[in-house]
Design brief:
The structure is a homodimer. Chain A is of the alpha/beta class. Chain A contains 14 helices and 18 strands. Chain A has 3 domains: about 170 residues, Molybdenum Cofactor Biosythetic Enzyme, Chain A, CATH 3.40.980; about 90 residues, Alpha-Beta Plaits (2-Layer Sandwich), CATH 3.30.70; about 170 residues, CinA-like (Maf protein, Alpha-Beta Complex). In chain A, the strands form 4 sheets. In chain A, strands 2-1-3-8-7-6 form a 6-stranded mixed sheet, sandwiched between helices. In chain A, strands 14-13-15-16-17-18 form a 6-stranded mixed sheet, sandwiched between helices. Chain A has a 4-stranded antiparallel sheet with strand order 10-11-9-12, sandwiched between helices.
Chain lengths: ~450, ~450
Amino acid sequence: MSDPARPDPVVHATAAIVSQGDEIVLGQTLDTNSRALAGRLMDLGIVPVEHVSLPDDEAAIAACFARLSSSVDLILCTGGLGPTADDLTRAALARAMGRPLVEDARSLERIRAWFAGRGREMPEINRVQAMLPEGAAAIDNDHGTAPGIAARLGRADVFCLPGPPAELRPMVERFVAPVLRPPAGRTVRTGVVHTIGLGESDLASRLKNSPRGDLMERTRMPLVGTTASGGVVSARVRYEGPEPAERAGAIVAGLVAHVRDLAGAYAFASEGAPHESLPAAVIEALRRRGETLVVAESCTAGLLGSMIGDVPGASVVFLGGVITYHNRLKVELAGVEAGVLEGSGGARPPGAVSGACAEAMASGARARCGAGWALSVTGIAGPGGAVEGKPVGTVYIGIAGPTGVIAGGVSSRRFAMGGDRRAVREWSARSALGMLWLALVGEPAARMLRQVDEVG
Amino acid sequence: MSDPARPDPVVHATAAIVSQGDEIVLGQTLDTNSRALAGRLMDLGIVPVEHVSLPDDEAAIAACFARLSSSVDLILCTGGLGPTADDLTRAALARAMGRPLVEDARSLERIRAWFAGRGREMPEINRVQAMLPEGAAAIDNDHGTAPGIAARLGRADVFCLPGPPAELRPMVERFVAPVLRPPAGRTVRTGVVHTIGLGESDLASRLKNSPRGDLMERTRMPLVGTTASGGVVSARVRYEGPEPAERAGAIVAGLVAHVRDLAGAYAFASEGAPHESLPAAVIEALRRRGETLVVAESCTAGLLGSMIGDVPGASVVFLGGVITYHNRLKVELAGVEAGVLEGSGGARPPGAVSGACAEAMASGARARCGAGWALSVTGIAGPGGAVEGKPVGTVYIGIAGPTGVIAGGVSSRRFAMGGDRRAVREWSARSALGMLWLALVGEPAARMLRQVDEVG
């Protein structure tokens, strides 16, 4: 792939990732390749600085290659290598390089052999997949017909790779990753701390007011940033510098531990970055204590149970529970007393959306299912259902557990969730898990984001 | 938002979508906003021509805005509007516009009110969210603290929007979509037919062998394509051409009706494109019949109930149900006879993953909850749990209903689901809804994708 007329090959300090295809740009398909490639580059110490998705437009792809080739050292492009008229990556790269497309005899032979291995003759349409810009090199595809392409363009090395993940992943591991050249003097290491119950600004001010100084200051190394998603607020730590890998890892680990301390009980995970989910953390904490969990869900209608059941091995602690969407089932399945839901003798009852109902649901589910812990959710997810004093987003979460941890064995909190129906339900389920997390780490009274004081 | 010095505002023929954040570019977070925005623009007749993701780098974001502003009519940017030092979209836009940041009094008041409504004082750090480039306009955020920004840059209108989907979605619908101006001379109309229980190749061959010819041929207008996601296979119809809106709409509607005929009982929705979900179709069919539904879930652990509860107004027909993850709760909550789960006298029991258990769960839940219909799911979601003759992905779905529709009042099917734990659970929940759909449209025996015949 190297051009003998050029001097020493570049070092790959920065990279751009290009994904190709109308279905991506027009919003019919979610591009997951770019994220996967970015993570892989970071592992290698190469920093992605831009992702671009482009439609099936040869001129647009060629212009993008040309632009990026003067600003980054490495371009990884996925898609557009198929045999049909809308597969334009080969032609676009040739145009950007100012070279003609030529047929690669070895690639043609491999494509023919791929079909022969499946008892078929190569359709003539697939012949185009053996075409390469003059001066480029083919990359073997062991899992499909489209060879990849390696080429030099401006200061950048360009790798064009097939879109299907099952072809892309092995090609990257076998032929691309081994020839990438991260800067020798630079190591990249990342870490993360996930929290529940803290607002992003709360976490940020803890980071700013650290005894070590303002951790989020943009000139510090490691860099610390915050992100928020569905109630989980995360601090992300990134080191990029000259330290050797082991030392860089220790620096990041030390800072992660410090950030975790700053977040206190609200931090539920800090290792293994994106895989440590809140339900997984709760399940692990219950497993260590040898305790079990059930749910009683009204407005979340099973979402909380589903989040828990999504974790492999959840069955060690999760027994199940009841979905009491209709008030009658709150009584029949969770044992809520009818008087909580309906007034008698003119008395105004607490109603289905109340702390009393959330507590009765949790206590009832815990007792009926014979579990150590129960979480309950009842609220108004919207768009309809608001009543005076209880707007859409009003949610009560109940928790029942050992009296040694939860005073009286049961308690509840009122929340004012924001967003649409989906957001209210997701925040509610995550906040319920957060309440349990705080109880399990010995801070059952720690105030939570979106918690509001009971009125009247 | 318009600049009085400029002539008539542009028409929005083309758009670019920018997403902002280290976590996206470095591969820690999957960007789903860009896809959603692209689909929404297509609905409106505006063609996205590029997606870009950039890191927290003010100069890079500003340069990207400047580049795009000379090539597209519309830029939608998400993220980077939070209160912390790594939220740089405001400053980048100001830099690209060559204007200073100024404080917007109304936005500041709204942010203060947002905190006050939650019983808190606005942290000083959030004050920066009221800053806007001079000449830009704030867009109200009804679901969070960050206002959006509308500005003119070069030939493009720029909208900077918050990253959290729960804030983004309502802001787009309420404030952005209404002010976009698709070109008048080009009409884009789309339609869709969603099916459950058919494979993508089954649907494609019905489309290819239509009495009207090969509907999927790429030179036809409207274009017809198929996509598959989690068990739902959809035929998408898209018209793009010079016909006036009404005529284009009629062309698409006529073709959609024809495709729906080709798909037969498997088609569950065809109007209103992405909003007609399978649970919504099932709920509507039950509502028309005046019947109710409950669930009994083992491996899905609440996911089926959650999908149903996700539909606004589900409470008209959905009562709730039981999550019987642990075998003991299958007996205690759903009334499954212990003999189904445990052998006695040396007999080998059907076990928890069996048609007998699925049927007992459905019958038991229907009777105990007093519902017209019950759906049950029990299976092996993996990665562990496989037993001889029942590999990971083995799932039994039960349905109990009126004996006039379901012979004997209850039945079950065995499925072999593919993919990982999440995929098995999602396919299971959707297949359960599909079984109910087929029963409700009078085809309770129609064979379904991934259904397998019981062995032994």
